[in-house]
Specification:
Elements lengths: L2 E5 L6 E5 L29 E2 L6 E2 L9 H4 L3 H8 L5 H15 L3 H17 L3 H20 L10 H12 L3 H14 L3 H15 L13
Antiparallel strand pairs: 1-2, 3-4
Helix pairs in contact: 3-4, 4-5, 5-6, 6-7, 6-8, 7-8
The structure holds zinc ion (ZN).
Length: 214
């Protein structure tokens, strides 16, 4: 893995951090935008951790404003010190916490969703459901502020529908998909929402990819 030297903006510690790669992939992402195999293996490059102050965020050189104040929070200290957690789940949860406390609801939602994907791979459905529950909460709050795909109307609802469907929350999935259909002006987003409604009506909580969408 390629690494680069980064100086933590919070405590000025210099450390080696992975470079985020974008390998080419030939298949489509999942409906919740989880990248196809080949790119999803780069997830351990998506967040950096300062070895000194334990700040965890996508770029230690450019953390959110106010991130430094979050680090002393007892929940954050406990979360980052948890050696029993899956290492990548630990990092995504910590980044979600920093994002939430610094007002970045959408980022917090995506970080919890990323933690859910890691839990899926670890076959830990309880943890995956808990992380999706948190993701749905923060993504809905971000959607209400226009910070989740703000320029692509209905896309946030299509994503929320998928997050609910994967938890088996059929009514919530259908509600979000119908809401997405009512606001979108894009045929693909409309088709995504129709697809979520069809899957939810079949009580299908499985993984499906965007290339299955008619
Ligand atoms: Zn630091």
């Amino acid at each position: 893995m390629a690494v680069t030297e980064v100086i933590c903006a919070n405590c000025k510690t210099r450390s080696s951090q992975p470079v985020k790669e974008q390998p080419e992939v030939t298949s489509s992402p999942d409906l919740d935008l989880r990248p196809a195999p080949g790119r999803r293996q780069t997830m351990d490059q998506w967040v950096q951790e300062c070895p000194t102050c334990k700040l965890i965020c996508p770029d230690l050189a450019n953390p959110p404003v106010g991130a430094g104040e979050v680090l002393a929070h007892p929940d954050y200290v406990a979360m980052t010190a948890d050696k029993t957690a899956h290492p990548l789940v630990r990092k995504f949860r910590a980044w979600a916490f920093v994002a939430e406390k610094t007002g970045m609801q959408a980022d917090a939602g995506f970080a919890h969703l990323h933690a859910a994907w890691v839990a899926d791979d670890a076959k830990d459905s309880g943890l995956a459901n808990m992380q999706r529950h948190m993701a749905a909460m923060h993504l809905a709050a971000g959607r209400d502020r226009g910070t989740v795909y703000g320029r692509q109307k209905g896309a946030a609802e299509a994503l929320l529908a998928d997050v609910h469907r994967r938890m088996g929350r059929w009514d919530d999935a259908i509600h979000e998909a119908e809401r997405g259909k009512s606001v979108t002006d894009q045929p693909f987003v409309d088709a995504l929402c129709d697809n979520e409604i069809a899957l939810a009506n079949k009580h299908d909580a499985g993984v499906h990819t965007t290339n299955e969408v008619p």
